[in-house]
Amino acid sequence: MTYYMDGGLTLQINLKSLCNLDCDYCLLPKHVKSQKDSTSVILDNTRLLIEKIKSENLFIKAFAIFGAEPFTVEPEIMAEVLNLIHEAYPDTHLRIQTNGTLCTTKYMFKFLAVFNYHDRLNLGFSLDGVRDIHNKHRCNSWDLAVGNFLWIKQHTVINTNVICTTNNEHFDKPEYEAELLEFITVMHNNFNTPVNIAYADLTIRGVGDSHIGESLFSKRFANFLIKNNLFMSCNKMFHTGYCYRKGNSCDKTLFDLNDGKTYQCEKKFAPDNDFIIWKDKTIAEVMDARVNETKDYPIAEECNTCEYWDWCNGGCPVKRDVNGLATSCYVTKTVLDHIKTNINPDWRAYLERREVADESNTNN
């Protein structure tokens, strides 16, 4: 089996398909996110998943709860799911990724009254750095999401991080770029909250330009990372263990605890994209089927002679152009060229040292 990479599995879990927003970046069709899923099976399926993992002696590095929006689940059920996971795997990281609008004071009081391991949870907020741009693409949710973030930082010991999704608009105006940089700095310095800088494919909803290849956005994005020494904040490209760097061997898997289906990841979490019913199989069978889903995805010919091949392995298999070139290719090569030429010829050792330092600072 090929999925024991980087010291263990990271399992993504979906509790419900419901979401209160319809963001431009979202991969899920609106009609799916408006479904009123039942929550009656979530706890039973959580127990079943844990039993399967334990019976097969698998090492789980992290459980990450995604969605649609996880906090559409009742706070008591969300808390019990996390309790069950932590009690079975006390050394495993617990993470929830949220749009930040539903983890209100009222919700959190109920959640924290049942969830017993507050300091073991990492709550990831989707905040896009520039208020106007965030509101344009995320249904005017900035003030509510930031308010909930601030309350959690002030009143709990829950760990936090931010996924900051950027697009061309962040670099159209100097004031927007400055606001983005200030947001990242304030999050890091004032709130001990790392920011993972990502990029959006607005072509999903037909409201923006493609980021494939040497697009205007790719050049701006790479330049922003380099001139501000922020490339380590682009986790998926420049940290080990992330899905983008596993290429066709990617083992990222999303288990739906509502309908029992399994999806490649959140990028493929949509109707008819499921590939196996996990309840009917062993986890080993699920993971083997998962790796088989992407093992034959096309890879661009130029990747065969690229000096950075063993760093990215062709990038995300579902985020490539028709020739098999990853959408992240230009940014990855530009940043690695910069490190090798201007910082340290042994670019790999440099990045690995930076990664260790980042992890140390985050854990302190």
How would you characterize this protein structure?
This protein has 364 residues and is of the alpha/beta class. Helix content is 40%, strand content 13%. The chain contains 13 helices and 9 strands. It has a 9-stranded mixed sheet. Helix 3 links the parallel strand 2 (60-66) and strand 3 (93-98). The longest helix has 18 residues, at 174-191. The chain is globular, with a radius of gyration of 20 Å.
Give descriptors for this structure:
364 residues; alpha/beta; disordered N terminus
How would you sum up the major sheet? Answer: 9 strands, mixed
Number of strand elements: 9
- Categorize the overall geometry: globular
Mean pLDDT: 87
- The number of helical runs is 13
- Kindly estimate the percentage of residues that lie in beta strands according to DSSP: 5-15%
Output the helix-strand order: EHHEHEHEHHEHEHHEEEHHHH
Order of strands, widest sheet: 6-5-4-3-2-1-7-8-9
Over all CA atoms, what is the radius of gyration? 20 Å
What proportion of the residues is helical, as a percent range? 25-40%
Question: What does the secondary structure layout of this molecule look like, with pairings?
Answer:
Elements: E1 9-14, H1 30-33, H2 42-55, E2 60-66, H3 75-88, E3 93-98, H4 105-114, E4 121-126, H5 131-137, H6 142-155, E5 159-166, H7 174-191, E6 195-199, H8 216-227, H9 235-238, E7 253-256, E8 261-263, E9 276-277, H10 283-294, H11 309-312, H12 329-343, H13 347-363
Parallel strand pairs: 1-2, 1-7, 2-3, 3-4, 4-5, 5-6
Antiparallel strand pairs: 7-8, 8-9
Helix pairs in contact: 2-3, 3-4, 8-12
